[in-house]
Write a structure and sequence with these properties.
The chain is of the alpha/beta class and 241 residues long. It has a single domain, classed as HUPs (Rossmann fold), CATH 3.40.50. It has nine helices and five strands. A five-stranded parallel sheet has the order 3-2-1-4-5, sandwiched between helices. Strand 1, helix 2 and strand 2 form a beta-alpha-beta unit. The chain is globular, with a radius of gyration of 17 Å.
Length: 241
Amino acid sequence: MDVTTDRQREAILLLSGGLDSATVLAIALAEGFALHTLSFRYGQRHARELHAARLIAKRPGVLSHRVAEVDLGAIGGSALTTPTPVPKGRTPNDMAATIPVTYVPARNTIFLSYALALAEVLGVWDIFIGVNALDYSGYPDCRPEYIAAFERLANLATRAGVEGDHGFRIHTPLLQLTKGDIVRRGLALGVDYSITHSCYDPSDEGLACGTCDACQLRLKGFAEVGVPDPIPYQGAGPYSP
């Protein structure tokens, strides 16, 4: 077998442990990629999502799973890395109006930079990330123009990009999907959403709160499809069953 050709079908996938990244993983596998998954312990409020990521990464077709250490808590500026309360019960209009305090400064740029470095070391050209520009919490680093800009940077700022005969590509298969579309696609691909975790502020037992932005968007997706979310919740939001 030609090793170079085989390598071209490998990809890096940013795996948070949530609904979106689990769906992207299934999509990438269905497209024929073998995956190196990358998660981060970045000073976030809890490690529940890292446990979920490890479970998701056990799926056949995942070649390796790494957890990188990045102390974004030392920088602060977010309710996910400081004691700042996580907003609860916000309406869709609230979510669309302003960038919320759960935004982590430059997080996707940092994560994609790590993924790019790993791709260059492993000799692969494709990076998958589960950003979404429709049902999201107003984060500026989830927009298509941001992804396009980072892809240009990837090919300008690396030895592989300058000297290689290919080009790095950032794959965003969820970019223009609603949360309902994402859930529907994942269910069709056999994603086990019961092992995923999306909540910003779970209980000490790991139960999702049901009212933070992430929980409400997740529950909205399942409600649109007409199936129950398989994870337990400690509270009830407007989209709860």
